[in-house]
Amino acid sequence: MAILVNTLLEQARHTLVDKDKTYWVEDELLGWYNAAVLAVVAARPDAHAKQVALDAVAGTLQSLPADGLRLIRVIRNEAGSLRPITAIDMALLDRSRPDWHNPVNASEAQHYLYDERDPRNFYLYPGVAAGVKVRLSYSLRPTPTLVADLPTAVLPIDDVYYNPVLDYVLFRGFSKDQAFINNGRARFHLEAFNTALGIKMSADEAIARGR
Description:
The protein is α+β, with helices and mostly antiparallel strands. Helix content is 37%, strand content 20%. The protein has helices spanning 5-16, 26-43, 90-96, 162-174, 183-210; strands at residues 49-55, 59-63, 68-77, 86-87, 111-113, 121-128, 133-140. β4 (86-87), α3 and β5 form a beta-alpha-beta unit. The longest helix is centred in the last third of the chain and has 28 residues, at 183-210.
């Protein structure tokens, strides 16, 4: 069920005791909400993701579409044999096949290589011809919600992240004025945000190991 952004912001104002928008103005609270959604997606790329069939450029180096935040997985070749594309270690390939970046113009890829420090780019092996299609999943950069969007805007990520997003907004709200606000409240909500995402990650890893 889609949750209105306004519902979350109203709950935040209730907790902040500022229903009349006296101390935390609309733009400010909305900015923290947008930062919260981005923080969730940065920690959990699968929270806002999609699959596409990408037209590869010639060679090994490939990039995500313009709306991409980070690669999740390259899945398969999209034509011909529909062969799966498996992940391999770049350092291992560098040692065993130091010429692997040389042009090959292959009609399909066998492996992909990815460095978390370069989240929008990845490599295919062997280097493919221009136009070869590969199916991949990637994390989308959330589109910021504007004040004008608020009457109909909904949470763009899964509803299970409602509470972490709310906790992040409250963390920023209670941190606004350290001389006026109890800093312990800010710390409490930041820890709740981090814990919620950590628990979700641990649960997912446990499920994956049990398969």
